[in-house]
Amino acid sequence: MAVPCKKTGDNRNYGVQQAMKGRLVSDDGDGAVEKEWPSIDLGYPQYVYTVSGWIQVVEVASYTAKPALHVIVVPHSHQDVGWRETVDACFSSHAKSTLSNMVTKLEEHRKWKFIWAETAFLSRWYDGASDTEKQSLKRYNQEIMFDDNFLALPIPLDVKPTSSWSVDPFGHSPTMAYLLKGAGIDKMVIQRVHYAIKRHLAQSQKLEFIWRQSWDVHGSSDILCHMMPFLTYAVLYSCGPDPHICCQFDFYKDKCFRGSKVIKSEPVTDNNIKKLAWALWEQYQKKAQLYNSNVLLVPHGDDFRYDTMQEWDKQLGNMEKIMAFMNADKDMNIKIEFGTITDYFRTLEVDRKQHSKSENSVMQNHILIGDFFPYNDRDDQYWTGFYSSRPLYKFMARTLQARLRMAEIFYTLTLGHLLKSHNNNHLLLQLDSKLADLQQARHAQATFMHHDGITGTSKKDVTKDYASLLQKALSTVEELLKLLLAITVPQEEDSLKSHIKMAQEWPVATAPPVFTVANITTSMVLVTNPLTSTWVYAVKMQIADPRLRIFTLDGKQVKQQVNPVFNWKLEVSQIAFELVFEAEMPPLSVKSFRLMSVQQASKEYASLTILNLDHNVFGSGSPFKSVKSVEESFDIENSFLKATFSSCKGTLQHVMRRSDDQSSKVEIKFLMYGTGSWTNPFKDKSGAYIFLPDGPAKEQDIKYPPMVVLKGPIMWSVLTVLPGVLHEVTLYNVSGSLDAGVHVKNLVNLADSQWDNKELVMRLVSDIHSPNDDVCVDLNGFQLNRKRWQAGRLIQGNFHPVNTMAYIEDGHQMRLTLLMDQAHGLATLNSGWLEVILDRRLMQDDWRGLGEGVTDNVPTPSSFIILLEKHTKPGLKTYIGSPCRPSLLAHLLSEHLSNPPAVATLDLPAESKSPLKFDRQYLLPSTFPCTLHLVNLRALALDKEEQTQSVRGASALMILHQAGIDCGITEIYTKCDLKQTVDVKGFQDIRISRMVQTSLTATVEAKEISPGDVNVPDMELRVYKINFS
């Protein structure tokens, strides 16, 4: 099915050319970070050894003193929410005392200032703080910054942050800048950026710039960004370019080093204050040369600092003495004070207005577009390994995200539905009591999003603690889903919940999820569609009896297929079978099916072809028929595609589109990277953070691996046993968009010692050659970014973090898109290639503070969809910095991968007097536009009468994202509406009394709008507060 992108009366244009009309970058990509790379000097001093091995590469050889330099010293303490200690241990050991010390010391010293970033710890501290501590915090209203966890303040402070402090994430995405701006934050500070980019920008005083989105034609999402110039945010890298000088001002440490020379840090006295003051003055002046203003930001802190009273006194007491001396010395002509990030930006704005002809001084900054990945702090040691470290927990977090979204949306709509009905107070109050469960699950998800959680860069015991936190949240959410399903089913809902079981559960935190096996007592199957569009699913479950079949409630048998269940060795399970059936699901709906045993069931059994196996995988009495084959190549197909495989290699080789009979090479290969730098004198190896391959990936010696081909009415699949991975490729036949893709599933296990210091990669080798070896990769699942091969960054520096999709396209018509269900590191190392790292097992630390390798590998599933699409507008000009946009089909399939259906089984009790009678429950009777994604519909607390406990109403936050798509690819194969506006009054049986647009954190109300005319601009996120009556 082909649809136009632009309907009559619709003034939207999703194309690249329209996105560039605002001249946000010139036609050759000026302003794009990616364009800067060829001119960036990547040189790193060789054979220069320091005690730490790290060298300060941003140097200031000479300086001209800036008169009346205004220095803002910002005390801070970075405290990881889990890293080398668990979240609980870190709070108890450091955060709790730091925050308590903060309110005490700021009460005693009114000129001292302090900033805090970790809102998770702040919330926990506040819950246990004394009334006096709470009042002190409110009174002094110290600055709370946003770091990794994008949250509204979880405590009742009258604070609306306008500045962001993000100094430890390992690279920076413009998506985060966009989210901050939408939350009312228009200024930000970042730190971990490639040393060569810092040096490059410092040379032209462009370390402060306007960060713009590539698709933003009006600059409405612009944010002022301050990039810190030196290696880290620690004291010795903060005051200026010379660490051996700056370290003397870390008064809580007694010494530091310069090579083998010991440099002592001494308290400030009358005898040394002048010497120390002039040394610090020179560092400030040197650092000021890197910026184009007379205002200087100087952080003063490090990891887990200020957790003792002694450190507060030593650090800020000594600094206060030096600052008083320098402020009084007219020869220095300098002003120094403690401040916050907001103080710095406020002072900077005053300075700009005084020294600029333009009143709109912020716009005098350089404009940059793009991301700051990959990060590198030393030579060839790129922080691209963490993109793929501990992938099971990346998948677990994505699963929780999907289930939590589904639960929140269905919870809110069920709440709204019950409010309209009479005599439902008991159910409303029951739901209201579950709101805390949603909040706790949300908190668990946010905690794991910390930059040492989702990255897989924490210690083993901390990783297990994170996994336990996620698993507990998953269990909580699924219990709530069961309750919601029970309420949705119009039959004795209180008694049904205990009989509902999810078809797939996660019983062990450190292992992948498993299917529950439905038996003859299971009478119903409930399928939930979390999408806002109609979708045809191939629903999978496991059954104990191969004669069980799916029927509609009126007795019609649906299209389905029964497959054997295989293990790693292609051994067949004797206790479980896979049942796959077609289900066309209305948007946001629950649909019920009967599960019944039949006698004549042979037509649904898959037929099997066995290759490269000497023995028969089936025993006597098996319902499946199989034949052996010795063919060198074979095909699987559906009405859209034909995929060709090699029995020698065991993998996909070509894909043909039936719509135009065009065949393209798409070969899947599995390769291994070893580890060990071959370009620098340190000879370091890969670790949790760093990817340091010992050369190109090596192909595995694979010839004629064991294979099984399954063919049936729903799907044709190829299973192959390869070293370290059970590999499955499937084509579906369910009359929907799923049929248009090649579905790949890998179950990877690198737990064996043969994988020590190895990284397993899946590579697609195609004949689709991008003109400049460009690849478009997603950023946080929100937008796509164009990246180009940079030879100077070697193999490891050309990997990118990808969460949902990437694509390459040639200069003619063809595009190859790889969609994925979890985060991976991805690269295009040669023309026509796309490769992802599936898992990595590293035996050593990589010197970034973790102190151990990554050896706790566990079996990990990962799913992909390969799309071959043809552009109707070949030859469209692209360049560095031009936006990338997915096809509408890629967007829809990506939403499906990220938000799979929930499947549950229901065992009706034997004493039940009547069978289940409902067929389906619509929560959204009409579809949303295909490009409009319902990110969430999050309920707020019920409004209850205190005396009677009767319910008066409820409210919720609706979060919408309008995806930008490429109109040149028109095949989608599903029902699709591309209208610009949506009527949210269309939610089933829900009355909306008021709707207000808010900031992204819902802390600021913007304007009231009509629920019947919600219009979200292209690419934008919008949040609305809805009142139900």
TrEMBL record:
GO biological process: mannose metabolic process; N-glycan processing
Cofactor remark: Binds 1 zinc ion per subunit.
Annotated EC: 3.2.1.-
Pfam family, one: Glyco_hydro_38C
Uppermost EC category: hydrolase
Cofactor(s) required for function per UniProt: Zn(2+)
GO CC, one annotated term: Golgi membrane
Alphabetized GO MF terms: alpha-mannosidase activity; carbohydrate binding; metal ion binding
Protein name: Alpha-mannosidase
